[in-house]
Design brief:
homodimer, alpha/beta, 6-stranded mixed β-sheet, globular, binds adenosine-5'-triphosphate, binds magnesium ion
């Protein structure tokens, strides 16, 4: 499903540069549930953004489902992102003037489904994360953990084959976190959803089949 | 220092309304370190926003340092917020086109200090949260946990007497969380900084002298 070979990411900043990823080799099989841990600033989000085709590596190869990603054109990358990958952002990235329900429905807008069917799927996705009573709230009318759950619902609504989740329980209490992790576990087992999840909480990483740790842009464990 | 009496907060939404806080009685003494826990959506941020003079209760009284807050005029509330209260927001609220250092310095802009002295204090505040090497980065050039720490540095730079922190370690790994909690503990003990901190992690709440739990807008423990 995923193969990263000697991936490096260098940011230009001012007159200098900073090497955020320093040679990552990683394989993720279909249906795997992988957790990524590591200190603040160690490169986790940078790695996830490359996996999600939101950013390009400076050096190295990324092979996704047998195809080298650097060979995909702009339209193909956008299509992959929309149809096959669900992404939960560390800072949610919800649309501000749009309700929870419309935010959740967004990935379906490009699909061929009827408006009524799309709305129903968005409803179901919000219900799965416990937010049926908050469908019409705008992001400013939602708590932090509710915004986070809308972001999760949006990432899952299009039934992606790969879910990339950046700290999906960072703003959730213990019980709500467990509900979300039970949902992800169920999707991983029943639908073979491949999951790569960043978390800094060991109890959350424990739901994954395997955990890797980043330090200074390298995998150390 | 803080006395809340029968505080209620009702939000208007669409044709109806939602009671987010349903009769809160709370006293916080000077120099206390209080943790607030509770499920996602239970009213924690709403309560903290009222404590921080960012929002007004619908009913009830808030007495801060002996003065009833509803009797303060707009200028007095702004002065209180800037001079006496430090606030760490759940979603950080950093200025996008402004460096980490300038973001940290912002509360001092209204003070009487010289520009050079202000810059030095902001530098120290960033150093205290481990971000000396990131002074010139914009928020988009910072990791999630680094943005969170800039928000903490900004809240502390003006040496407030009251710190209100909404999930200050939500995006931090265990070790960085401990460094931040050690910093807050030190300020609480050495400078008698009064702290009210929302957290969903029991290991973080353990640093506080007392913990209260919210459920459906009421204190239950
Ligand atoms: N402007 C608003 N209009 C309507 N409802 C609102 C508004 N702001 C918040 N709410 C609702 O009030 C409730 C409490 O929100 P609050 O942000 O205080 O929760 P919280 O305890 O901080 O949750 P979390 O742990 O998820 O951050 C939530 O159910 C939320 O949907
Ligand atoms: N656009 C950028 N320009 C320069 N440096 C950057 C940029 N984006 C990120 N960085 C730096 O790259 C490093 C890795 O960032 P990344 O967001 O991947 O960390 P992270 O492991 O997700 O951290 P956290 O746990 O705090 O979210 C950080 O030190 C950050 O300051
Ligand atoms: Mg990150
Ligand atoms: Mg909150």
């Amino acid at each position: 499903m995923i193969r990263l070979e000697r991936i490096e990411k260098e940011y230009r900043i001012g007159e200098g540069s900073f090497l955020a990823l320093n040679g990552i080799d990683l394989t993720v099989g279909k249906g795997e549930f992988l957790a990524i841990t590591g200190a603040s600033g160690s490169g986790k989000s940078t790695l996830l953004n490359i996996l999600g085709l939101l950013d390009r590596p400076t050096r190295g190869r990324y092979v996704l489902d047998g195809r080298e990603v650097s060979s995909l054109d702009k339209a193909e990358r956008a299509h992959h992102r929309n149809r096959f990958i669900g992404f939960v952002f560390q800072s949610f990235n919800l649309l501000a003037r749009t309700s929870a329900l419309e935010n959740a429905e967004l990935p379906l807008v490009y699909s061929n489904a009827e408006p009524a069917a799309r709305r129903e799927r968005a409803r179901k996705s919000l219900a799965d994360v416990g937010l049926s009573s908050r469908e019409n709230h705008l992001p400013t009318q939602l708590s932090g953990g509710q915004q986070q759950r809308v972001a999760i619902a949006r990432a899952l609504v299009n039934e992606p084959v790969l879910l990339l989740a950046d700290e999906p329980t960072g703003n959730l209490d213990t019980r709500t976190s467990e509900e979300i992790m039970d949902l992800l576990t169920r999707l991983n087992r029943e639908r073979e959803l491949t999951i790569v999840m960043i978390t800094h909480e060991p109890s959350v990483a424990a739901y994954a089949g395997r955990t890797i740790a980043l330090r200074d842009g390298m995998i150390v464990a």
